[in-house]
Structures are given as structure tokens and as C-alpha cells.
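Message: I would value a second opinion on how I read folds in C-alpha cell form. Give me a protein, with the fold worked out from its sequence. Write it directly below this note and I will take it from there.
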Amino acid sequence: MGLDKDTIAKRIAQELKNGFYVNLGIGIPTLVANHVPPGIAIEFQSENGVMGIGQFPFEGEEDADLINAGKQTITTMPGASFFDSAVSFSMIRGKHIDLTVLGAMEVAENGDIANWKIPGKMVKGMGGAMDLVASAENIIVAMMQVNKRGESKLLKKCSLPLTGIKCVKKIVTELGVYEITPEGFLLVEYAPGVSVEKIKNATEGTLIVSEDLKEMSFS
């Protein structure tokens, strides 16, 4: 039991506030654009040079010239703008982005994140992740809590090369919602049908269960 990737994104969409400028990373974070709550205006930014990203296009309506940083085809909202990388990263480094949602391969209990490289595998580079984690003040991670081998990805200490240090504020996985605290991962919400015992078994790092623990809500 647990959430699928789209429902993780739906839960993260509840963190959006009217007027926010939001950067969505590659993977699960891109799905957040499909779940903006009614009645609020959000500007989604992509570091390849787009402000005003909309939902994913329907099949047959894709425009190959409109892509996000993950090279997925996108739609744009009225008033969207396009610019070069220098302007895009000035927005990020200048702290003009209110919320960043990133995927991760590992997160440590102190807020360290590893999301760009697996040793031994060829990669083109860290990309914009380094700038995002260094500049953003509000970072939420969207990830699956266990890997394909059933091993926890919420760790005492990351084993993969770090992208950022002590920068993650909140994590949403298929099992629960966690806040980073000085004591470790604070479990504040659990996914429907998921027991606290299962969450404990899927968390290698220090886990604290909130006194106000509640079930996730998607209304």
C-alpha cells in the first residue's frame, strides 16, 4: 500500500500558495503542475528558460519546441515568457523562487540531498540542481521512500554524491509526509492504509512520530 507518483504530486500541490513562483524538478515534481488547487495563481518556472508552465499536453497536442528542463513537452499559460539561461538562473540565484520541488535518490536526516549522480553511471553534469539547492529557501522533495531493492532512501547519511547540504525542509513519499528537524525525520502525515510500523521499517534515519500525526488529506 502507498501512494502512486501522481498522488504524491497532488499532496505537494497543497503546499502551493497564491502568487508563488515555483520551480519543478525532473520526475515526480513535474506532475505538481497538474494539481494546482482552484482559485490560486501560480507561476511555474523551468531553468531551461520558461516562466508560466501549464499542465502536460494531451496526446496529439504536443509541441516539440515547448519543453521543460527534463525535456518533457509542456503547455504554457497566458502571459508565459521565454528567456535564456542567464536570466533563468538569475531568478534562481537571486532568490526570486518561492518554492522548489525536487526529486531525490537519497535524503539524510539532517536535510542533505543526493539527486544527481550514481557512481559508475555516465551523467552530463549536475545541471541546475546545484543552483536550486544553494539558493532556494523552501525545498520540498518528492520521492519514493524505498528503492527497487526495498532499501530505505531516507537515511542517517547519504551514500551518494551530495547535491546540497542541510537544505531540504519537507519530504513527501508514497508512505508519508516528513519535516526535517534537528532530531531527524518528523513524521507528520501518513498515507491512507499505511501503518506507522511500516513507515518505521522503511526509514533508516532517525524517525520521530509527531504528537499531531494525521492521515494525508487530498481535499
